Structures are given as structure tokens and as C-alpha cells.
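Most newcomers find our protein records easier to grasp once they have seen one. Nothing more is needed to start thinking about how sequence determines fold. Here is such a record, shown just as it appears in the course material:
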Amino acid sequence: MKQRFSSLDVRAIAHELSASIVTLRVSNIYDLNSKILLFKFAKPEVKKQLLIESGFRCHLTEFSRTIAAAPSGFVQKLRKALRTRRVTAVSEIGTDRIIEFQFSNGLYRIYLEFFAGGNIIFTDNELKILALLRDVPEGEGQEPQRVGLTYSLENRQNYGGVPDLTKERVRDALQITVQKATASAAKGKKPTKKPGDELRRGLATTITEFPPVLVDHAMRVTGFDSTVQPSTVLENDGLLDNLVQSLGEARKVVQEVTSSDTCKGFILAKTKPGFGSGASEGDEGIDMDQQQKNNLLYEDFHPFLPRQFEEDPSYTVLTFDVFNKTVDEFFSSLEGQKLESRLTEREATAKRKLEATKAEHAKRIEGLQAAQLINIRKANAIEANIERVREAMDAINGLIQQGMDWEDIAKLVERERRRNNPVASIIVPPLKLHENTITVLLGEAEEEEEEEEEEEDDDASDTDSVSSEDSGYGGTEASVRKARENRLAVEIDLGLSPYANAREYYGERKNAAVKAQKTIQQSETALKNAEQKIAAELKKGLKQEKPVLQPIRKQFWFEKFMWFISSDGYLVLGGKDAQQNEMLYRRYLKKGDVYVHADLHGAPSVIIKNSPSTPDAPIPPSTLSQAGSLAVCASSAWDSKAGMGAWWVNADQVSKSAPTGEFLGTGSFMVRGKKNFLPPAQLILGLGLMFRISEESQAKHVKHRLYDIPESLLSKQTTAGTAGKVSAGTGEGTSAEHDESDSEDSAIDVEETAESRENPLQPTGQRDDDDYEHPEQMEESPPIQELSSLTISGAPSTSGAAEPPQAETSAVGGEEREEEPATETDSAPLTTGTSPAPGPSGKSTPQPQKKGQQPKRGQRGKAKKIAAKYKDQDEEDRAAIEALIGAAAGKQKAEAEAKAKAEREAQKAATLERRRAQHQRQQRETAEHEEVRKMMLEEGIETLDAEEAASLTPLDSLVGTPLPGDEILEVIAVCAPYSALSRCKYKVKMQPGAQKKGKAVKEILEAWKTASTKKGVVDEKSADKEKMWPREVELFKALKPEEVINVVPVGKVRLMMSGASGGGGDSKGKGGNKGGGSANRGKKR
């Protein structure tokens, strides 16, 4: 089985990586163990994972793996230097199985060595080693490698370039091969190569760009005999020309591998022993490709299909379009098999321990039952042979009373037994006279003897017990031995009578019966405790093992936001930060959508996506309430435990156009018009699981979105709202004396009234107080359509017109912006771009002296003296004197400082001008974007392309409770208001608390896993919706806590888990709440 890369594999991987990860940035670096590293690269909408095993492999992976608990020192150094840096080049160093990664145009470099023990070396731009995975001492043909030394590249194979393949080069390679073979033979070494393999191996070690398997493939393609000896080829020019032609074919294969960005990969596999090539009848419903892969053992992989394996019928060839995927599939399959075998071995060990415990308890009970039976048999035997027992006891007691030695008594009994004395024949040596006991052989009662004979042999005839006893007293030695074998050895206490001895055995039988009864009663408890202890040991052992590899799930486009699907089936999105709030507004807030926000610090911008086909359909009140709950719970209200209501507006009421003189930062927006306030929201969130099902299974689920119902029913539902709007518009048209601005404002008021009547959460009698408090301002305001002319132009308007006030205008978004009351916003005058320039400040500045001004007292005389002193001094003398006294240096320094100051001021002015121009350009772009967006909202134009629009509707594949027969593909964790998770089978309620969300998520996942191990919880047939299904258990066991933690938008929580293990939220444990927690964390009120 192939374990490491060949030179051709290294070239193919390096070529593919140069096309796939160049321009990506390093997001993080992890170590899986002491030899395997995991690099994560990313850029917008692209994520890659690179797996590096020192000395063995390097490839992109599509499987998730468990990382180490803490990074190693080597990984910490790599993180410190490489995180967020861009990959600028990936290449192979010569043909020496070394891959070079360059970061930031060669500022840092990583070299991967795939020969010998392998190594990962981290250097700077001067190839000075900064860190490496393992230190390499100096050896034969190997320079030392440690931190501080310079990594050498000049001595690598073909570092300057691969030489041309000529006849002379092949001849020299063959001569080197022959010389090595001769030297090895002279030293008496045994040949390590297979007979007939000298030519192929020799060429692979001398012409290093061709691995042995490629040389063999080229020889088979061209028909060259690979068993020819190198010396024979040197002697024959024809063979040498044919060999050069074969190597030319190998070079063509290398060129094909690197001719495009990706190359095909081929895995060579063999069928597992015991599996046939065809599928059985019971496997008709199983995916044939998956079944085939499960029955194969991977042996080798190559970036081309070797002819020697293509012709071998014992190999199965699997083809892949990308070589990275080929290597990933090969090694990941091996990893998965190793992991599964280790987990299976641990489970088998635990099962053996449990079986051994059960066998020990059964053996103990069986021993007590056997003791009862043997004691009752002994007592019955004594009672059946009272006379013989008394005779034996009297004989031994009489000898003891005579004062005979114990050894003499034993010798006397043995001598009498040989003489066939009937009393001595039933006494069994040795005599335990020190314990005052002897052992006698007694025949059992006749009934028991007949039952025993019937059990041993049904065909045997009944034998009279008396005759068997008689035969024990006389006859041949064989008959005596047979009689002894059929009799029972019973210990007799010489100090008691025969009946007292029988009573002792009855008492022992009674004690054994009582003990057996207690053991049986306690056996169940003991087995249960042992089972729990073994299960705990197994759980502890399984935690040490890494889970089976799982493919990396491709996330939906909306998972980068806070998201959930409401109980009515609408997609609700929320921004995690200011950048995401901006993205939601610019890319996803379309016509018919609803914008939800709360006047709280840290509250996100939340939008509700309406159906693009029916943008005028009203959003259900329950969905509005759930979106408002998310906006409130994700704000500072969660930590303060003081909830309040959110509000919502239509998409066309939100804009980025700020009033003149103001600036809206990232994630901040202007909301114009009336806000529809929602009732105060409860601070209750829920963590649930949703399952993605296949397209075939989607038809079984009932569509519950309002915009999925027929248009005829939809038109009936919206008739009441539209009728109100039409009547209001008709009444407005009759009043012709109103001016343009009044008519527009009235139209806005009518629409808001109609919307408030359509929304049950908004009181119908509520009016905007600002519309009646400031009617004069509304009459004097210019029309709304003039907003574009005021903001699109490059320079600010000089007309002095103020920003047109709306029914209500406020700035939302951004954690630092606090919304002012509506009355203050409307009454305050808006700042325009025509504000007068600020007047001169009170700070005085020095002014130069005027021409006709009289000098101060004493200055005239001083000036005359200076003129008389220096009247004969010219400029040269003046410069010489200044140089002599050091005044010139000070003057030059002052001039340099003045020049530097002037340069700084000029640079500062240029920076301010550049920022001013950038700000003006941003304002123009924002105004243009707002104008285009306004036009698109009016005309209902979508800006998304076909692929993006198609990706906006994956909600039908996400279900909370799968139906019997559904094909479950993936599991997705979602955090939402608890009322939105009513359709989820697995859910847990969360309230504000003191427990960190990371610990809480781990506890929830562990509770679900624990519940799945209880008896009767999992429905193996996947038919009962109220129970767990094996596929569901498999999926949520593979969930990583890190992935689920990022879904929860709050910091600290309190879990509300019931003790039910089989089902949902009702008292019987059926439905959604699968929390198998040991105790409730709070009481529901």
C-alpha cells in the first residue's frame, strides 16, 4: 500500500496548489498531531483547507478533522508570522520531492520535504531557518538543519533545471547503474532488487524526474522489455535507442500532468476479501457507488493510469477529475478505516468486560445452587445409610479410645480395605482425625439414583440400588472401583451422631439457599452498576479517540449572518456587526422586504425577506414579532435583562443619504417616515437543529409560507388593505387646492394608516404627533423628488434650501449612534452645505511693520552704530565671520527646520485635500446608489444574477422535523426566538443567565448524545416522528461545538432543559425538546 508521495506526485500536487491557493490568505494554522498540520486559507467567498503530513503527503481536503486542544510551539511560531499573509507562489524545488510555499512575495517561506524522515522548514527571505518541525543532525549526504542555519537549495536534484533527455545522458545513467551493481557484488551484498528489475530501478535512481512506476509504464507502452540487464543495453545501440524512446514517452506523461491547472487522478483498489463483485438482492436500495467504495481496499494512486495496472483484472480503477481530490480520498479513507477500527475495538473491549461481569455473577449463583443440591444429597445419603455410617464412626472412635496412634489407625483401615472389610471399604483416606472428621462413600437413595441414571442414559436399564450396594462389599476390584465412582463422598463429624450430621448438611443447604436468594436479588443492581461503570470507561476512552471523518459541509449564503426561518416560513437575517449591517442593506434589502430595528445599544439591523414574486404581500404579525425579538435579544438588553419593543419599516423608508453636513458611518442608515412599533419582546431564545433533505423528499412536506399559497387566495387576503389605500387616494384627489408637498405628505400618511390597520401589532388609532405639531414646516418644505438633485451633484448646493423633513426622520444603525426623539429631529434645523465660513478667531498673529511707521526709542541710534561698524564689510567677510563664530550652522539648521515644516504642512494639506475629495466622492457614490436603488424599488428590478437568485430559495430543503422516508443529508444548527422553533424536533430554550454560551452548547450536545443511548429512544426503522432516528443521531453526534457556538448571538445564557429523553416539549417528552439533561436549570413560569 502506498504511503508517501513520489516525485511525480509532488510535481502534480505543487502544480495544482499553485493554481488553487495562490492569492489566498492564511486564516489560521492547526496541528492535528505531532506530524500533521492543517492550514486554512480564505478570501471572500472562497475557503480552502490544506493538510500537511511531514514526509508523506500534502493536499487540499474536504473532510473535517479534530484539531489538538492546544497549538504546539512550532504552530504558534507559524501563526505569529503567517496569519493573514497572502500565498504568492507554490512550486517544486527541482525534482527532489520538496515543495516551496512563498508568502508575501517571498518574505517568508515554508519548505516541505517528502523524503527520508520528512520535515517542515520555515525560513525568511534569506533562507535563514526560523523554525522547523524536527532538527536534523549532519550525516552522509545530509547537511544539518536547525534554527539559525541557512537552508541550502543548490545541492538539490536538478535545482537549476531538468537536463534534456539525450542518448549520452541515458548511457551515463546505465553506466552508473552497472558500476553500483558491480561494487555491491564485490562486497558480497545480496541483491535487494527483484530479478529482472535492475534496469527500471537503476533508471529511477539516476534519472530522478521519472519514478519507477512511470518508467515501467513507459516501457510497457512502447513495448520495451524491462527485464533486460543494463549491461546488455549498453552493448546494444538498438536497445539503447529504444530505451531513449521509452523514456521520451515518460516525459510526455510528465508534461501532460502539468499542462493544465488540474490533472486527473486514479486510485487503484482491490475488493475486500469476502465481498463479491456484484451487489446482493438486499442491497438494491443502496447507492451502488457508495457500496462499491465500501467494499474496496485502496492500494495505490497516481496522476496517470499505469498500463501495468490497467491490464490487471484484480484491480479496480477509480477516476477523479482533480488530483488533490484523489489524494484526499485515498488518505482520508485510510484514516477513516483506522478510526473506525479503533472505535470498534474499544466498544468490543467494553462489551467483553460486561459479558465477563455477567458470567461471573451467573457462575456465583450457579455455585450457590450447586451447593444446595450437594448438601441435600449428602444429607439424604446419610439418612439412607444410617447403619453403615454408625458402624464406621464406632470403629474409628473405638480405636481412638484404645489410644492407638492416628497413623496406625490409617494403616489399619488401609489393610482392612485390601481384605474387603465392608466397614473399611466405605472409609476414604486420608483420615482427618485432627479435625475429628472422616470421609465415607455412601450410596444415594434409590429414587434419586434412578433419576440420575435416566438423565445420563435413557437407554440404560434400571439397576437395583441394593444389588449395587451389595456389589460394593464384594466382587472383583473393577466392580469395587465402579461402585466407588457411583457413590457420594460425605464428610462425617465423629463428635456428632449420624442424624446430627445429616441435620448439619440440611442447615448448610438452608444457608446456601438464603445466600443464593440474596445474590439473585442484588445481581440486577450489581450488573446495572457494572454496566454504568463500563459505559463511563468507554465514554472516557471514546473521548480520547478522534471521531470518524466527516465531509466539510458547504454553508448556505445566509449562514454568515444571524438567521432563522420564522414560523410562517420567512427568512429573517440579522447583521453580526456594522459591516454585515451594511451588506444586508446594500445587497439583500429589496422591494417588499421589511427592515426591523430596536433603539438599543448593539441592536442589529434585521430584515425579513419577502417573496420576490409577490413583494406587496403583507408580512404576518408573528414573523414581525419574531424578527423584533431577535433585534432585542441580540442587543445590550440581553445582558441587562430589560427588554423593550422593536419597530419595523418598509424597505423604501431606509436609505444612506444623510442630511447635508452629516455623515452616516458603516452600518448606519436614515429612516424616513413612520415607524411601526412592536410590543415588548420576551428575552427568550432557542437553539435548535434543522435538517437538509433531498429534492425528492421536499414534495412530502406541506408548504406553510404565506407566499406559497395560490394567488387567488392571496388576492382575497390583501383586498382589505388595498381597498383602504384606494379610497384614501380617491379622497385626496378631490382636494385640488392643496399644493404638491401637501399632497405627497398626505399620501405617506394614508399609506401608514393603511399599514397600521393591516398590522394587528400596531394600534389602529395611533397617529404621528409630528404631523400635527409642525404643519408649518411641512408646508414650507420642498418636494421629496428634489432630494436627488441636492445630493447627486459633485459640489454642495448653494441655493440654501433645507433638507425636506418627512413625517419622521432619524438615523439608525451603528452602536455609537443614539436616536433622538422625533420632535427634536423635526424641529431642529438641518445643516446645509451653504453654511457661512467661520469668522476669524480671537487669537492674534504677528503683523509685519508698515513702511511709514516710526522706530521705537533707541532703535535709531543702535542702527547707526551697527552701520558704522560694518560699513567696510562685504558679503564674503560676513560669511567668514559667521562661520568662525558658528552662526552659519545655526542659520542653516533654522532654514532646514523651516523647510521641513513647510513640507509637513504641504503634506498635511495634501492629505486633507485627498480626504476631502474622497469624502465627496463617497457622497456622490452614495447619492447615485440611493437614486438607482429608489428607481429599482419603484420598478421592482432585481440586481442579482440567475445563480444568486436561485441560491436565495433553499428554504424548502430545510425542515425541523423530517418525515418517514425522507433522505436526510445534513444538519444545521440555528438560534432564533423560541417561538420560531415550533416546528423543530430538537430544541432547547435559553434565557439570560451567567453560563457562558460555549459551555452551554457543549452541555446541550452532550445531553442529546446521552439521550440517544437510552433504551427505547431511537427508532431503528425511522418511522416514529416523536423518537430519534439513527440518521439524526449520526448527524448531531458529528456536530462540532465550535460550529454551534458561533450561531448563538449572545454571550451568557441559562438553559431551560426538561428531563425528557425521547421527544419534545410536552410533559411526556414528545415533540421537540430532545434534551436529555439530568436536571432542570430553571422553572418555567
Notes: The first strand starts at residue 25 and ends at 31. The two ends are 63 Å apart (CA to CA). The mean pLDDT is 74. DSSP finds 35 helices and 31 strands in the chain.
